[in-house]
């Protein structure tokens, strides 16, 4: 990982004097925080006025969804083909609240996040003990269970395939009115930025370092006196609660949920987008979501067969060295910005 | 022991080949474990690598055998550079690696283990195996998982003897074995030298003193000393480098 | 009357189990030997079904079409193995898993492009029924069970009686050791992968007449195949057989008791198995993480 945001790498760079960094690069390091938040999300925020709003919202929600998977894969080393289960948990948590109990969409989001937390806390207690190959498969199984629960077993309350409609049950909210698409987009944007900053912050904490360490060598983590189960469980719950938040936002955005959300056929989407964007990189989820949603949109409009191209792109990205789109672009961008910074100093 | 008829091709001197390692650097990910290691094994020599655990001895053998790819340096045998060769190609060339930890296929019988080696090398004559290790003949139908440590070591070395090997790379052959088996292996090594070159990684210093023609002391990924003087080897002169 | 339902239920479960076995055994062997989770096996399954369907429509030779389905799947897997997997065997499990997923969805896209989106009905090769204890049972389902049994026996013979098979067994245990003996393990990999691909294609071709042939058919069986592999234990042939029939029966008999249960019960069973034994019924705990 050539990523300087990576804590292990950062420590290495701090401790190894031979890695002399130029002044420009060091400046870039301090700038990164602000550049990181302002540039990509700012561009996307502005794009909301140019690109179709639904597209921007889709990209933003998908990038939140992917951030969760990115954390699992890039920091904990877990590959999960079961993200739709947590997405659906969040979406249905929100939907149940808004359909049966209340009308406040913010409370709906809270309900969704809580539902996601409960599901992932329970599942995590069992799953994080498993070997990585079984972990991937078991999560998929959970997705299938959730799907059939929603579609058949809980049909009396979920209305099966017909789904739950609650668009017109949401009441107007003060300050940021969720029922207004543009203000909803702003909310989603704010949530995405906040989460981005949050995961960036996590990377710098001891917990973040422990996550990365369990990925590399769990035994060593145990010998250092950390509880590797607790670390993995916390990371798992954190990530999947984030996925549930994305599901909740999807629910609010569509005003509708259906079991289709937990469809196993979509199980690999977040993993694919994570890899596509660049696993473990901070901008990966955003770049990946943009590329994936954009390509699906564009290709299915032009050719009508997005699977083939997504598959082709995925295999190409993997064979090209697994760094993903952002992982490949990052060094180039860094050099570019670095040159710009040093020029402006002279 | 009597002279064996299959004692290799080296005696006529026409194609004497040395195994030469030059400036080998090896890393596991970010961690570098070998730093510019060089060594030379002449035909018919028994070379021992000694050093503490984690010094990089096993890494060295695994790299020569092709399981690890060096980041720098060359591994020459005769006039070919082996870097980039696949392990099975190196094995077919006659450079055999006998792993540590006495790993045989636990689900396969001794016979099947040997059949596999025959399949790989095309050498179906097991006489040489039974010449060195007559005990294996009685154990042919026993599964690898039910063999004792010594028997496993016999099988591992025996397997590697098929197909007329030129160089044997043997990792920790006597680790954890009974003294009587170590005695047996000592005799085997002395005789093996006549037909092939041998490199052993060994912690048992008295054994090294008995059989080695040259000793490399490996310390923290570097060759700390090279001792080829017979008296010095007998006198355990390498101990100070460990 | 009651008994009739149960007998046909068991037969149905056996035939489903057979299909699951043919599909999962390749996946399991590939994992055991190469440490890859080859999701693209499900592409060969779909491909086998489509080729069988196409050949059958063209020449009306049911068994020939099944054979051509399996062969086409074998050829496709050979191409994929040479071009993609050969370069990435040394990479970690998640890497190959995602790559194989890319191949799977790319292939599904290609199938949509060639054959279109509409599900197609494949005609059944043997359309007669026999009576077992007074219950009419489709002969075709019995043939599927017989074929799966034959494949199991053949795999066991290859693994236990031929030197290549012994090399494969040995390599499942320790691939470095086999390569150290001078065995070209990449040839073993290719053989195993293509063998697995052909079995997947065979499964697809045999399954086609029982379901509609449609582009998503590979993705639809993914959960079941995963489950079979997990319950049985990755890398174990015997485990795959046992769990395939177990899952087949649970799906079949479960649907007789309470329809929605049929789809879910096996997954619940799987979670139970994993809670008790995290590596599946016959899985080896020795495999590296």
Q: What's the topology here?
A:
The complex is a heterotrimer of chains A (346), B (242) and C (289).
Chain A: H1 7-15, H2 23-50, H3 53-76, H4 83-101, H5 105-127, H6 132-153, H7 155-158, E1 164-165, H8 181-204, H9 206-216, H10 218-223, H11 228-254, E2 256-257, H12 269-277, H13 284-302, H14 306-319, H15 324-345
Antiparallel strand pairs in A: 1-2
Chain B: E1 19-28, E2 31-41, E3 46-50, H1 57-64, E4 72-77, E5 80-81, H2 87-93, E6 95-98, H3 110-121, H4 127-132, H5 135-138, H6 149-161, E7 167-171, H7 179-192, E8 197-201, H8 205-211, E9 214-219, E10 222-227, H9 230-234
Parallel strand pairs in B: 3-8, 3-9, 6-7, 7-8
Antiparallel strand pairs in B: 1-2, 1-4, 4-5, 9-10
Chain C: H1 2-34, H2 41-59, H3 62-88, H4 93-115, E1 120-121, E2 129-132, E3 135-138, H5 139-161, H6 163-173, H7 175-180, H8 185-207, E4 212-213, H9 217-232, H10 237-257, H11 259-276
Antiparallel strand pairs in C: 1-4, 2-3
Helix pairs in contact in C: 1-5, 1-6, 1-8, 1-9, 1-10, 2-3, 2-4, 2-8, 2-9, 3-4, 3-8, 5-6, 9-10, 9-11, 10-11
Structure, described:
The complex is a heterotrimer of chains A (346), B (242) and C (289). With 346 residues, chain A is mainly alpha-helical. Chain A has one domain (18-345): ABC transporter involved in vitamin B12 uptake, BtuC. Chain A has 15 helices and two strands. Chain A has a two-stranded antiparallel ribbon. The model of chain A is unreliable at 1-24 (pLDDT under 50). Helix content of chain B is 31%, strand content 25%. Chain B has helices at residues 57-64, 87-93, 110-121, 127-132, 135-138, 149-161, 179-192, 205-211, 230-234; strands spanning 19-28, 31-41, 46-50, 72-77, 80-81, 95-98, 167-171, 197-201, 214-219, 222-227. In chain B, the strands form two sheets. Chain B has a six-stranded mixed β-sheet with strand order 6-7-8-3-9-10, with helices on both faces. Chain B has a four-stranded antiparallel β-sheet with strand order 2-1-4-5, covered by helices on one side. Chain B has one domain: Rossmann fold. Chain B has 242 residues and is α/β, with parallel strands linked by helices. By secondary structure, chain C is mostly helical. Chain C has one domain (17-221). Chain C is 76% helix and 4% strand. Chain C has a two-stranded antiparallel ribbon. A two-stranded antiparallel ribbon of chain C has the order 2-3. In chain C, α1 (2-34) packs across α6 (163-173), α1 (2-34) packs antiparallel against α8 (185-207) and α3 (62-88) crosses α4. The longest helix of chain C is centred in the first third of the chain and has 33 residues, at 2-34. The mean pLDDT of chain C is 85. Chains A and C meet through α6, α12 and α14 of A and α3, α4, α9 and α11 of C.
């Amino acid at each position: 990982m050539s990523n300087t945001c990576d804590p292990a790498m950062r420590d290495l760079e701090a401790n190894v004097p031979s890695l002399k960094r130029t002044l420009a690069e060091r400046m870039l390091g301090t700038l990164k925080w602000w550049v990181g938040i302002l540039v990509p999300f700012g561009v996307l925020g502005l794009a909301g006025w140019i690109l179709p709003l639904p597209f921007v919202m889709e990209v933003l929600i998908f990038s939140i969804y992917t951030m969760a998977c990115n954390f699992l894969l890039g920091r904990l080393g877990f590959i999960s083909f079961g993200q739709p289960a947590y997405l659906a948990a969040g979406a249905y948590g929100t939907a149940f609240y808004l359909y049966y109990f209340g009308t406040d969409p913010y409370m709906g989001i809270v309900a969704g996040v809580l539902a996601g937390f409960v599901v992932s806390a329970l599942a995590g207690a069992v799953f994080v003990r498993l070997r990585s190959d079984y972990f991937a498969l078991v999560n998929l199984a959970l997705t299938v269970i959730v799907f059939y629960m929603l579609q058949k077993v809980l049909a009396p309350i979920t209305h099966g395939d017909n789904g739950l409609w609650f668009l017109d049950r949401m009441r107007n909210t003060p300050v940021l009115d969720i029922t207004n698409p543009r203000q909803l987009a702003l909310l989603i944007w704010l949530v995405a930025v906040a989460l981005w900053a949050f995961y960036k912050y996590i990377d710098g904490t001891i917990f973040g370092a422990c996550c990365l360490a369990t990925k590399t060598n769990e035994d060593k983590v145990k010998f250092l006196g950390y509880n590797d189960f607790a670390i993995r469980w916390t990371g798992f719950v954190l990530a999947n609660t984030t996925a549930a938040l994305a599901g909740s936002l999807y629910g609010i955005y569509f005003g509708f949920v259906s079991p289709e959300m937990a469809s196993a056929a979509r199980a690999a989407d977040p993993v694919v987008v994570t890899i596509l964007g660049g696993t473990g990189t901070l901008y990966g989820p955003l770049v990946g979501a943009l590329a994936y949603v954009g390509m699906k949109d564009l290709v299915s409009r032009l050719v009508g067969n997005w699977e083939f191209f997504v598959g082709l792109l995925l295999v190409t990205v993997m064979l090209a060295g697994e760094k993903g789109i952002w992982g490949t672009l990052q060094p180039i961008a860094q050099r570019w910005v670095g040159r710009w910074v040093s020029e402006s100093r002279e | 022991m009597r002279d064996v008829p299959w004692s290799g091709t080296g005696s006529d001197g026409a194609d004497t080949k040395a195994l030469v390692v030059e400036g080998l650097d090896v890393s596991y990910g970010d961690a570098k474990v070998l730093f510019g290691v060089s060594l030379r094994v002449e035909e018919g020599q028994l070379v021992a690598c000694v050093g503490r655990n984690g010094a990089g001895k096993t890494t060295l053998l695994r790299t020569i055998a092709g399981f690890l790819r060096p980041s720098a340096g060359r591994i020459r045998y005769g006039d070919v550079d082996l870097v980039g060769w696949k392990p099975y190609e190196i094995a077919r060339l006659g450079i055999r690696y006998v792993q540590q930890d006495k790993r045989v296929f636990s689900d396969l019988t001794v016979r099947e283990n040997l059949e596999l080696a025959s399949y790989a090398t095309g050498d179906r004559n097991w006489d040489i195996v039974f010449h060195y290790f007559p005990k294996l003949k009685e154990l042919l139908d026993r599964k690898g998982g039910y063999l004792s440590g010594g028997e496993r070591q016999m099988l591992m070395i025996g397997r590697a003897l098929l197909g007329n090997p030129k160089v044997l790379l043997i990792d920790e052959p006597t680790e954890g074995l009974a003294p009587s088996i170590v005695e047996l292996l000592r005799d085997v090594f002395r005789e093996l030298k006549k037909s092939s070159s041998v490199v052993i990684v060994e912690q048992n210093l008295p054994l090294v003193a008995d059989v080695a023609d040259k000793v490399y002391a490996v310390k923290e990924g570097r060759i700390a000393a090279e001792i080829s003087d017979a008296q010095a080897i007998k006198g355990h002169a390498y101990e100070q480098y460990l | 009357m009651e008994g009739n339902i149960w007998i046909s239920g068991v037969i149905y479960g056996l035939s489903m189990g057979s299909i699951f076995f043919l599909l999962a055994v390749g996946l399991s062997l590939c994992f055991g030997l190469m440490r890859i989770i080859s999701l693209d096996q499900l592409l060969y399954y779909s491909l086998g079904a489509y080729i069988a369907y196409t050949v059958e429509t063209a020449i009306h030779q049911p068994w020939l079409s099944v054979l051509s389905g399996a062969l086409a799947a074998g050829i496709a897997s050979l191409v994929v193995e040479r071009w993609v997997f050969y370069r990435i065997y040394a990479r970690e499990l998640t890497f190959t898993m995602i790559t194989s997923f890319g191949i799977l969805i790319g292939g599904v896209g290609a199938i949509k492009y060639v054959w279109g989106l509409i599900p197609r009905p494949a005609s059944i090769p043997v359309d007669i029924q026999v009576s077992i204890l007074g219950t009419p049972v489709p002969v075709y389902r019995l043939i599927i069970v017989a074929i799966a049994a034959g494949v199991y026996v053949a795999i066991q013979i290859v693994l236990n009686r031929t030197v290549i098979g012994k090399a494969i067994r040995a390599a499942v245990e320790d691939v470095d050791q086999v390569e150290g003996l001078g065995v070209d393990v990449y040839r073993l990999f290719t053989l195993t992968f293509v063998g697995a691909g052909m079995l997947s294609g065979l499964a697809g071709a045999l399954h086609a007449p029982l379901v509609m042939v449609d582009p998503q058919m590979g993705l639809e069986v993914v959960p079941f195949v995963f489950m079979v592999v997990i319950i049985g234990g990755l890398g174990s042939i015997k485990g795959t057989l046992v769990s395939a029939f177990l899952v087949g029966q649970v799906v079949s008999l479960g649907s007789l008791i309470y329809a929605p249960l049929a789809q879910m019960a096996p997954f619940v069973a799987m979670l139970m198995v994993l809670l008790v034994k995290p590596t599946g019924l016959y899985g080896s705990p020795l495999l590296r993480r």
